[in-house]
Amino acid sequence: MERNIAHVALFAAMIAALGLVPQITLGFGVPITAQTLGVMLAGAVLGARRGAAAAGLFLLLVALGLPLLAGGRGGLGVFVSPTAGFALGFPVAAFATGLFVEHVRLRSAGLAAGLGAVFGGIVVLYILGAAGLAIVLDKSLAEAFTLVAVFIPGDLLKAGITGMLVQALARVRPQTLAWHRGAAGAGDLRL
Amino acid sequence: MISLTSPVETRAHRWPAGVKLGALCLASTGLFLTGSAAVHVAALLLVLALYAAPGRVFLQAGLRSLRVVLPFVAILLVWHAVTGELRAGALIVLRMVTLVALANLVTMTTGLGELVDLIRRLTAPLRRLGLPTHLLETAIPLVIRFTPVLVARAENLAEAWRARSRRRPGWRLILPLTLQALDDADHVGEALRARGGPLGPQ
Amino acid sequence: MQMAKAADFTIRLDDLGYEAGGRPVLSGLTLHSSARRIGVVGRNGSGKSTLARLLAGLLAPTTGQVRVAGIDVFRDRRAALETVGILFQNPEHQIIFPRVSEEIAFGLRQQGLDKVQAAARCEAVLRSFDKPHWRDAPISALSQGQKHLVCMMAVLAMRPRLLILDEPYAGLDIPTRRQLGRYLNRAGTHLFHISHEPADLEGCDQLFWLDRGQIVAQGAPAQLLADFTAEMNRLGDLDDIADLAG
């Protein structure tokens, strides 16, 4: 129980900390930030419920006015801006990523996490993000989607990193991945 | 951690947070319901006047936080110039800028403590339904404390990397950072238990 | 600070065992003591920290039982909060809140004090340590020694009858150690001090030597610490650092 609160809070802090990493620019001039990597990791490591809680907690702090979104943004303005769909989509994306890893049983934890991140952090998040954009900018969903599609390669990269990270975690710290079958034997390490 | 609350003390700092939040919700709904250009222009002017009232420093800080919507303003105007519906485009831009400005205004004039209190009041019905909302009171400060700790951790790792490598560390630091964060989480879990973490105030 | 009554206060560990990942960390450990300052000395990896966590009720024993003043500290958390406090080796592992006053008030609120009472007690503790100006200080701006002191104030504010110290001086300079040691002596609670550093334990009333999860000797500090130091120096000339656990 205590450990659950701590994990949720620490992954919320992780999403925030990754947002403070300076953005890098992909070969064709599109800037990417590491923040959604944090969202993918929260879902892929903690699973659906705790992952969504971590992303939700992060979002709550943004709403409270802390400048934790990539680029130092925060406050209630985020939730009425064109990118509101992406921000509000964070908990859903983490939940979907977690749902994927919990229910799609693959031999490799890393592969499950990478695919889960593609599903939650890209498919689900972009649908919500494009929907938000469509509402605020008064465009159709397809039109909104063309505006954000350039960011997909960067997010595919992040999904790949999520997969590699979870693969490594499954090896060195399997007890962390409650959803992973190999973790069953390590259950006695918990409180 | 520095909140986005403005250090310039305005009269609005003393208004109840709930009232400001309610007004923001009403204004957003109102602007989405009306298609009148006059109402939109008037709303934007009103918001700008609110920004200007406390003085120059406040106005500048406010305008700075509005810069994030500029790319979208540009995209919208170009888009609508191409499709030849510039009037409709202008209306969307006005609404977007007004809403973001208004929401930022609430953030700038409301302290963190007040908002946390508001959350406690808003979640009271959930608490009565048996949801453990008191956990938020522990979780929120934990995040505020651990974000700078994690950033410092990342900097230490980057330093250790650079001490032995000429290449940039980049994403390779995320695994050790995650492992450290997980260890931290275990220790914090322990510290919470040592002082009665999830019991909640009686 | 409240003086705990020594007469009815006993630590009883009976046939205590703990396993992590199928590997025994502690086994068949029995320890009874009513001394005011109990010390446990042992090498790295001897099970000292696990013992501290079992005694604080943070871990569930695999076998045997832990009773502090008759209380099952793992099961009865509310009673445990009034009875035991623990000071960790690394203050970063204990501090939960961004500001000093919030950190001190947290445990008090968990003990059932309301906001006003917790704030008053927090003020009183800060004043008794001559640090009233620390109240609103951000923890991140404090030095390592100052963070240790915040941890100590936060735990002592809860007025535990027993304070467990898990190598609280590791990595601190001599003046800081001495100052923290003085505050601890003044606190008037029972102390259960765990360390690998003989010098930390000289002032104890009763001492236990923990090795590979078992108590191998007990007695007065003077003799036991001399034996321990001699054995450590002997081992230091060997090369057992190469042995992997398990």
From TrEMBL, chain A:
InterPro entries: BioY (IPR003784)
Database matches in Pfam families: BioY
Ranges that cross the membrane: 51-69, 76-101, 113-137, 144-170
Signal peptide: none
Listed Gene3D superfamilies: 1.10.1760.20
Keywords: Cell membrane, Membrane, Transmembrane, Transmembrane helix, Transport
Family membership: Belongs to the BioY family.
Designated name of the protein: Biotin transporter
A GO-annotated cellular component: plasma membrane
Annotated localization: Cell membrane
Membrane topology type: Multi-pass membrane protein
GO molecular function terms listed in the Swiss-Prot or TrEMBL record: biotin transmembrane transporter activity
TrEMBL record, chain B:
InterPro entries cross-referenced by the UniProt entry: ABC/ECF_trnsptr_transmembrane, ECF_transporter_component
Location in or out of the cell: Membrane
Keywords: Cell membrane, Membrane, Transmembrane, Transmembrane helix
Major localization class: membrane
Transmembrane portions of the chain: 31-53, 65-82, 88-112
Topology in the lipid bilayer: Multi-pass membrane protein
One GO cellular component, as annotated: plasma membrane
Pfam families per the UniProt record, alphabetical: CbiQ
Family, similarity comment: Belongs to the CbiQ family.
Protein name (database record): Energy-coupling factor transporter transmembrane protein EcfT
Upper lineage: Bacteria, Pseudomonadati, Pseudomonadota, Alphaproteobacteria, Rhodobacterales
